[in-house]
């Protein structure tokens, strides 16, 4: 018989992580553990207030389906039982891990990958003053890809330029976290184009992104808050060139794989992203990395302490998980 346990775990962030919506000093995650006949599967999610989630609410939602899980719930049935979001992600990934460990078939093979190579991840520069961000970018300038947080009420053009001066060789991705407006959008896009940024992520609030149809876009635009699962994909054609797939939005690896298929069929390129979580959250997302134009799975690099065992990072190169971690 299966048994479900749920825990709330806290991991300190190294320093402070700041985006347009605020700052935090720890990652608070919910872990689902499903055991069966001596085999144990784990999945982690990061509840996100932007989507109306709380840590306690997500943990309760997982505990509420314990009878179905313990009766042998499948990943396929889970998709109809729970909505997309963090709670389903933890359960879905725990079921993937349990199935891999019970069968001896690694998760990437079940997902259709014959090879699971290392990936190069972006590294995040938090929002701060132009001087603070330039200092952080200079310290990380040897990393090939930097994802830079913007979205302050003013001063972002100075920040855009300061980071480029500090990291002249890096590929830069600007992430405004919905923090720009119709009034300043074109000036910010022009500044990013002038400084050679590769992408601009979610510049406008999701509810206001139709404005993107009305302007010229000198830099490719990446959807994050505007895309969750396949149901949210159709209206994005003509607004964005790239979508950011995060398992906490899709509700797990099962829907993430289906979303990737649907997005590629519509001509979107992919980024595989994350919330600030541990290696257990990054590991299933890495299954999608070989299909992605950009990988942004640096969560453990931002932590002062990760899970043991964790993923192996060598600079910005991240290696697939060992079975003891996941999959």
From TrEMBL:
Keyword Magnesium: yes
Cofactor note: Binds 1 Mg(2+) ion per subunit.
SUPFAM superfamilies to which the protein is assigned, alphabetical: Enolase C-terminal domain-like, Enolase N-terminal domain-like
Binding annotation for Mg(2+): 175, 201, 224
Enzyme Commission numbers on file: 5.1.1.-
Family: Belongs to the mandelate racemase/muconate lactonizing enzyme family.
UniProt KW keywords: Isomerase, Magnesium, Metal-binding
Top-level lineage group: Bacteria
InterPro entries membership: DgoD-like, Dipeptide_epimerase, Enolase-like_C_sf, Enolase-like_N, Enolase_C-like, Mandelate_racemase_C, Mandelate_racemase_N_dom
Cofactor names: Mg(2+)
Gene: ycjG
Pfam families in UniProt: MR_MLE_C (PF13378), MR_MLE_N (PF02746)
Domain Mandelate racemase/muconate lactonizing enzyme C-terminal: 130-222
Metal-binding keyword on record: yes
One Gene Ontology MF term: racemase and epimerase activity, acting on amino acids and derivatives
Protein name, UniProt field: Dipeptide epimerase
Active-site residues from the entry: 149 (proton acceptor), 246 (proton acceptor)
UniProt xrefs under CDD domains: L-Ala-DL-Glu_epimerase (cd03319)
């Amino acid at each position: 018989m299966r048994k479900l346990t749920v825990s709330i775990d806290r991991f300190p962030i190294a320093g402070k992580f700041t985006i347009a919506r605020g700052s935090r000093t720890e990652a608070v995650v919910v872990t689902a553990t499903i055991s069966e006949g001596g085999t144990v599967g784990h999945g982690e999610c990061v509840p996100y207030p932007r989507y109306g989630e709380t840590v306690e609410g997500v943990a309760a939602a997982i505990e509420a389906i314990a009878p179905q899980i313990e009766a042998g719930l499948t990943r396929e049935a889970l998709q109809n039982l729970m909505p997309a979001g963090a709670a389903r992600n933890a359960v879905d990934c725990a079921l993937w891990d349990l199935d891999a460990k019970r069968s001896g078939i690694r998760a990437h093979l079940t997902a259709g990958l014959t090879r699971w190579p290392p990936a190069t991840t972006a590294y995040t520069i938090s929002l701060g003053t132009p001087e603070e961000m330039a200092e952080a970018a200079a310290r990380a300038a040897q990393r090939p890809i930097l994802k830079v947080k913007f979205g302050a009420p003013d001063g972002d053009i100075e920040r855009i330029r300061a980071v480029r001066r500090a990291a002249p060789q890096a590929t830069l991705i600007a992430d405004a976290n919905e923090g720009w407006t119709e009034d300043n959008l074109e000036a910010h896009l022009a500044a990013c184009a002038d400084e050679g940024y590769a992408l601009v992520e979610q510049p406008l609030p999701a509810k206001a992104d139709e404005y993107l149809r009305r302007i010229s876009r000198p830099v490719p635009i990446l959807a994050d808050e505007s895309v969750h699962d396949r149901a949210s994909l159709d209206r994005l054609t003509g607004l964005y060139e790239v979508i950011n797939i995060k398992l906490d939005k899709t509700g797990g690896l099962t829907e993430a794989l289906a979303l990737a298929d649907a997005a590629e069929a519509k001509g979107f390129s992919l980024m595989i992203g994350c919330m600030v979580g541990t290696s257990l959250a990054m590991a299933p997302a890495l299954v999608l990395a070989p299909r992605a134009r950009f990988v942004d799975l640096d969560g453990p690099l931002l932590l002062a302490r990760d899970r043991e065992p964790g993923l192996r990072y060598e600079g910005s190169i991240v290696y697939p998980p060992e079975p003891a971690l996941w999959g």
